[in-house]
């Protein structure tokens, strides 16, 4: 590679990395301002959540379409278009006069941000020699992971400094302008020439199928997961999406046989190694979704103040970035299978430490670093290289389909995870009967209770025996307590019981994350011989 080519590649990786960071940052950065945004538009939390939901749907829809378009018409062109759309969408969000306009602007923003990672990855895979691809992909993956984790922190800082949620989106505009200008000047065009017209009908079918499945999944209720599956707004949309997806596959098969250019890599979907890579992608998305709940764990289990909980994600974010970078190195040196296996093992260990080991903050930091490092390895290089091995064309399409399965995993997993947490808190009445008496006795033994306090405790015990066992009942009883020492003892005991319920809930969540990491390991072990046979064929 000449000096000019090296300089061009350096610029390309730098621009793609900044673009990926900006797009990935946005969905995390908004979480810090959701309450402020809802208040400014005078909408409740359920309606306000649509700002995140629509962005996620937009990402899911745009990724496979942009992947195909970048292969067909050129990655430089599509990168510039995507950045421009994202910048315009960001400006429209910041200037939104009402909530409806805001939602439309968020969707436009997502349509611009969704394909940047795919364009960057397919460009790297099409231009760099194989021995250098892992390191470059690892950098993109690291940017993706760090941005997603640091988003809430950066959002909180900007909101504290400026007092305006509009700044969170306006900051994207000058960055987008610079990226568009430098993209014109510094990027070289790459594309995979395809015969025939673009599969417009397939594009529409795919968009509607994704929209149906994703919307149905977002309506699931974690506490009553199986029960909610039978709600019309869940099964109706999911079934409609699956029917459309089946219709799409039939259409794509016919189109490919006629020599057309299908929107999905249909020939790859017939290959077991690629299908197993998609399965691993879905599991990796589900595993990455576990990070969403770590700030809440630090708050509800370790007692970290809510306004500081996001900052405790920093060790995990830095570890994820380091893991993504080293994951690329591992992929270059030892191959993608080794990197995925290493990721699954380290992630499983990290998540297992949460329910089994963490009692104090320094243990939380160590566990977060291990889990973040493990998840970081799988973020960029290994799965992308597995998905595009032996491909001379359609790299963007193959990567986009992988990204779509990862997004589906990230959409479904939080519902399952949240169900564990909710069930933990729902067990509070039972815990009041089984664990509260012992907790209370331990705290009473440490307190110096007066005669008046002892008499009030006796009276309170009689009231509790008559049926006040739930947390809400205990709160009402606490308000009636007059003795300050007794009140402090009871408050401390209730808080300890609440923490116990949270530990039980999060224990189920992180144990399920360990199971998912184990599933990645098992599927990868099945994939290894199939991949070896495919490469030899």
Query: N-to-C terminal Cα separation, in Å?
Result: 29 Å
Percent range of helical residues: over 70%
Sheet with most strands: none
Q: Which series of helices and strands comes N to C?
A: HHHHHHHHHHHHHHHHHHHHHHHHHHH
How big a fraction of the residues is strand?
under 5%
Rg over C-alpha atoms, rounded to the nearest angstrom: 26 Å
Report mean pLDDT, rounded to a whole number: 83
Enumerate the spans where pLDDT stays under 50 for 5 or more consecutive residues. Answer: 467-472
Outline type: elongated
Task: Count the DSSP helices.
Answer: 27
Task: Find the structural class using helix and strand composition.
Answer: mainly alpha
Extended strand count: 0
Please give a handful of descriptors for the protein shown.
537 residues; mainly alpha; 82% helix; elongated
Structural overview:
- The protein is mainly alpha-helical.
- The longest helix has 53 residues, at 484-536.
- Residues 467-472 have low confidence and may be disordered.
- It is built from 27 helices and no strands.
- The protein is 82% helix and 0% strand.
- α4 runs antiparallel to α22.
- The protein has helices at residues 3-29, 34-41, 45-48, 50-73, 75-94, 99-113, 116-127, 130-162, 167-170, 172-186, 200-218, 225-228, 232-257, 266-269, 272-288, 294-300, 306-309, 314-334, 336-356, 361-377, 381-388, 395-426, 428-434, 436-446, 451-465, 471-480, 484-536.
SSE map:
Layout: H1 3-29, H2 34-41, H3 45-48, H4 50-73, H5 75-94, H6 99-113, H7 116-127, H8 130-162, H9 167-170, H10 172-186, H11 200-218, H12 225-228, H13 232-257, H14 266-269, H15 272-288, H16 294-300, H17 306-309, H18 314-334, H19 336-356, H20 361-377, H21 381-388, H22 395-426, H23 428-434, H24 436-446, H25 451-465, H26 471-480, H27 484-536
């Amino acid at each position: 590679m000449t000096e000019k080519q090296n300089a061009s590649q350096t610029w390309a990786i730098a621009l793609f990395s900044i673009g990926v960071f900006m797009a990935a940052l946005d969905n995390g950065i908004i979480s810090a301002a959701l309450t402020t945004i809802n208040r400014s538009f005078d909408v409740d939390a359920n309606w306000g959540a649509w700002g995140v939901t629509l962005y996620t749907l937009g990402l899911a829809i745009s990724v496979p379409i942009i992947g195909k378009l970048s292969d067909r018409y050129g990655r430089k062109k599509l990168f510039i278009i995507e950045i421009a759309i994202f910048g315009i969408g960001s400006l429209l969000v910041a200037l939104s006069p009402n909530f409806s306009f805001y939602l439309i602007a968020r969707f436009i923003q997502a349509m611009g941000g969704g394909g940047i990672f795919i364009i960057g990855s397919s460009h790297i895979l099409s231009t760099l020699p194989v021995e250098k691809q892992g390191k470059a992909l690892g950098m993109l993956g690291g940017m993706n992971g760090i941005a997603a984790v640091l988003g809430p922190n950066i959002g909180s800082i900007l909101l504290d400094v400026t007092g305006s949620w509009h700044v969170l989106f306006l900051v994207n505009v000058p960055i987008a302008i610079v990226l568009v200008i430098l993209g014109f000047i510094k990027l070289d065009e790459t594309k995979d020439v395809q015969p025939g017209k673009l599969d417009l009908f397939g594009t529409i079918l795919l968009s509607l199928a994704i929209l149906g499945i994703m919307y149905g999944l977002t309506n699931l209720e974690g506490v009553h997961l199986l029960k909610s599956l039978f709600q019309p707004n869940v099964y109706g949309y999911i079934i409609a999406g699956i029917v459309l997806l089946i219709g799409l596959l039939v259409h794509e098969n016919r189109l490919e046989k006629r020599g057309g250019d299908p929107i999905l890599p249909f020939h790859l979907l017939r290959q077991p190694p690629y299908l197993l890579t998609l399965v691993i992608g879905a599991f990796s998305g589900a595993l990455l979704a576990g990070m969403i709940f770590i700030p809440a764990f630090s708050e509800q289990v370790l007692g970290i103040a809510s306004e500081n909980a996001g900052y405790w994600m920093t060790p995990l974010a830095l570890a994820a970035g380091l893991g993504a970078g080293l994951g690329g190195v591992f992929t270059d040196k030892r191959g993608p299978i080794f990197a995925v296996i290493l990721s699954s093992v380290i992630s499983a260990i990290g998540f297992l430490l949460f329910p089994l080991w963490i009692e104090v903050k320094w243990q939380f930091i160590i566990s977060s670093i291990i889990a973040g490092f493990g998840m970081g390895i799988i973020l960029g290089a290994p799965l992308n290289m597995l998905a595009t091995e032996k491909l001379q064309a359609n790299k963007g399409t193959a990567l986009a389909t992988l990204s779509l399965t990862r997004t589906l995993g990230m959409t479904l997993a939080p519902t399952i995870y949240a169900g564990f947490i909710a069930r933990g808190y729902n067990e509070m009445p039972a815990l009041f009967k089984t664990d509260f008496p012992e907790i209370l006795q331990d705290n009473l033994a440490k307190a110096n209770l007066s005669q008046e306090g002892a008499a009030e405790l006796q009276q309170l015990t009689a009231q509790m025996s008559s049926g006040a066992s739930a947390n809400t009942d205990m709160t009402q009883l606490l308000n009636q307590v007059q003795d300050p020492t007794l009140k402090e003892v009871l408050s401390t005991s209730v808080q300890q019981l609440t923490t116990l319920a949270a530990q039980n809930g999060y224990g189920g969540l992180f144990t399920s994350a360990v199971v998912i990491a184990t599933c990645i390991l098992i599927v990868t072990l099945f994939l290894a011989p199939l991949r070896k046979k495919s490469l030899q064929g």
